[in-house]
Amino acid sequence: MKSLPILFLGIFFTLAFSWTGIVLVSHIQLGFLEPATPELTNAEEEAIAGVLFRDPDTGRMVHGRNQDGVQANPMPLVGSAQRGLRVYEQMGCLYCHSQQVRRQGFGSDFERGWGNRQSVPRDYILKERVMLGTMRTGPDLSNVGLRYSELWQHQHLYNPQITSPGSTMPPYAFLYEVRPINPVTGPSPIAIDLPAQWALPEGYELIPTRRALDLVAYLMSLHQDYELPEIKFTE
Amino acid sequence: MVDPHRFGAAYYLIPKVLGRPIHSYYLSVVGFWSLALFYNWAGVHHLIGGPVPVWVISAGTVASVMMVIPVVVTAVNHHMTVVGMQREVWRSPTLRFIVFGAINYTAVSLLGSTMALRSVNEVTHFTHFTVGHAHHGVYAFFTMIMFGSVYYMMPRLLKREWPSAFLIHTHWWACALGIMLMVVALHIGGWIQGLQMNALDEDGVPVFTFIETVRNTVPWLHARSISGLLLMIGHMAFFLNVFWMIFSKPAAVSDSKPTLLGA
């Protein structure tokens, strides 16, 4: 193997080449992102267009500052919704559902009401796991928290045929318990109502488990209904 | 990811079993280095339309199209080595699987380069087309080459021949037909799914509701289930043959001829 050094250098170079491009340059471009208000300001608190402004002292382009008293987005997941992300992972929702909206004119994401703007890197900076997904056996979920009620989510998870006849999604009935109604305390306040044709036998109620409640809290937390300095709603 | 692994197997076994050198040493070098240069960049074509900077996607698309170079070079090298010896390939269990894999490598890679184009990706992304493509790559090309390699290795390691040509036949036909059925069904079904997903009328309203596009994939998914059944039959035949080979008495088969398939 007299060409071993050349082989080694060649492999090192090709790996370094792609690592520099995809990992390092992307990190330099996006690594500093933080939650932002829809408009940013310069050092004199004047609104700027876009993300960067020229610092008069140094002459360099720097990132704008968040406006005071305006909500910065995205917001972190907390509590039940944070635990729900784990359930989302464990149930394999990722295999059939994406969480990324493509721009209007590329696919039909906008026309299907899956989002009113394209998803951008900043939308994902606080996610513990980024559930982008590569498959849409089911619809995109970037904004599913805006589309349906909690009751709809529970009925749909318990049996997708209740809310979406003809769906190929498997039922997640094992996240729910069918229990006799307690004769002393009466029906549980967290019992899930079912439409008449899917009603349980007389005297029984449908109770979501902890995991079902967490998963629905997570789904209800999914929304990209805010503008960012780099992206506005599609007209 | 699996390409380099498989390249090693195919480059070793095709010349070894046929007893003729690889078509061109220099082409294999060109193939290796162009693959090493472009393949790492190509992965981001899975994010076309996604929340990443556009230059990343453009770079990934360019690299995916540049992959045509190593693919064509490798195709010329593998297929030219085999040309004129098709009968031998068909008779050897090892080569039948490996050449099937090599042919599919050419096909799946050229399809993959096409799928990285934005206009094509707009249709195929998020559909069963991509799933079919993944199985085309990892099964029709990688797994089949690994099967072929096992057919070569086991007799040499155990110093005994494969006990049943019938089971090899069953393995071959069930797997080859099964994976082809899966690939064709998912490609056609996925393409239709993508067209229906994107179809808008003059007012910009989707022509098909989402649930309609889902229902229209069901017949293709049934075809996929049948293909899975065929693959299972093939795997059972392979398992039986391996089991039989390992636990048979060595003396009974040690001085027999190699197990070849009918011409």
Quick gist of this model?
The complex is a heterodimer of chains A (235) and B (263). Chain A is an alpha+beta fold and 235 residues long.
Spell out the key features of this protein.
heterodimer, A: 235 residues, alpha+beta, Cytochrome Bc1 Complex, Chain D, domain 2, 2 domains, extended, B: 263 residues, mainly alpha, Cytochrome C Oxidase, Chain A, 11 helices
- The whole-angstrom Rg of chain A is 24 Å
Category by helix and strand content of chain A: alpha+beta
Structural class of chain B: mainly alpha
Give me the number of helical elements of chain A: 6
Q: Could you give the order of strands across the largest sheet of chain A?
A: 2-1-5
- At the fourth level of CATH, the homologous superfamily of chain B is Cytochrome c oxidase-like, subunit I domain
Q: How far apart lie the N and C ends of chain B?
A: 35 Å
Q: Can you tell me the CATH architecture of chain B?
A: Up-down Bundle
CATH fold-level topology of the largest domain in chain A = Cytochrome Bc1 Complex, Chain D, domain 2
Sketch the major β-sheet of chain B: none
Biggest interface, and residues per chain?
A: A-B, 39 and 38 residues
Helix content of chain A: 25-40%
Order of SSEs of chain A: HEEEEEHHHHEEH
Mean pLDDT across every amino acid position of chain B: 91
CATH superfamily of the largest domain in chain A: Cytochrome c-like domain
